[in-house]
Amino acid sequence: MYRVSPFMQRFAISLCLGVALATLWVNLAPASYYDMIEWRMSDLAWIKPLFPAPPSLTPLNLVAEALIPLFMFLIGKELWEAIVLERGGLAGRAAILPLAGALGAALAAVLIWQIMAIWIDPNAETLLRTGWPVPIGGDVVLVYLFGRLTFARTSNALRLLLLVMIALDMMGLILLGLTHPNGGLLRLTWLMLPLAAALILRRLHGRPSQLALDGRAGDGRAGSERARRLAMRLWPYVLAGIISYAGVIAAGLPGALGLLPIIPAIAHASRSFGLFAEAEELLTDPLNRLAHALIWPITWILFIFGLTRGGIDMAAFAPPTIMVLAAYWVGKPLGFLAATALVLRWGGAKLPQDCAPAALVRVALLLGIGFTVPVLALDTALDGGEVAEAARLGLAASFVMGLMTLILPRR
Question: How many structural domains compose the chain?
Fold first, then answer.
């Protein structure tokens, strides 16, 4: 297995620095912190046709709706390659174990959340009926940071951990968007726009580019070279991405999903080198070129995300804090282990090479870390306010699971 690229570590450090600065700020000078993240830069009247009620442009909305989509594009690219490329982690029967683990972790987290909500306050509609998508997602960046300290960079256990967490992140965002559409179900018809953009892009540029990259285009050497030069053009993908993003926003779904529909239409390499593999930095296909062009912007985006969304109010402890920790520390690990045990025993799945049962337990525990995607869900699923702040505190406390995993015995 190829080594994971060091840019993942830079992502984690950048995010943690932003969260640390925001937490210090919000606890020392809360008024100025909230003034900063809620500063109204524009009323966005010019995009009113795309929104049932267009939000004001604030640093909070700018990061979540316009910048995080770039990060989710990178995550989606890795998931897509794992599914469709040769030696991908989700190709064929290799998908059974990580997908079963992700599904088990998500279901158990939601179940624990609902049980805790009923126990705390059965009349709390926000917690019981709308808040359940919060514990589904996680944080692939922070999980990688602790996973790298737990496993070797070439470990299949680290690869399994990243696969499961990426699947959980995507599942959490998609379910959040479908269960909390902004403006009603009728606006979901706008999703025809990103679908059309992806199909047209694939037909007119993506597929011819793929054939050229695979050496199956052109009527001779000159024709092949010309086809390859055309295949290297990135502007059609950028244009399709803008159209796709506009359609997703107009449909009332989270902007974080805006660039995902075009990923299958982008020409890509013929085989996978593993999730976030360092070897991919040498590839020149359009999908990898787009991803690598985003590395440094995403590093800053994650810092700004931590700064605007990561302010932890240490005095916000409340029942939702316990709900979050129960879902992450009890639900996800037990759900993952139960699901993987079932498919290993009766589903025909096999443990990856060098991934012993003890490593599987560590993977399960590290799934108990969550921040980026759940934080995106807080204001939508929990309507902000004290409940959301209490849940944010629980998400920050989930980092402790990573530290606990590091001190576990090796066997």
Answer: 1
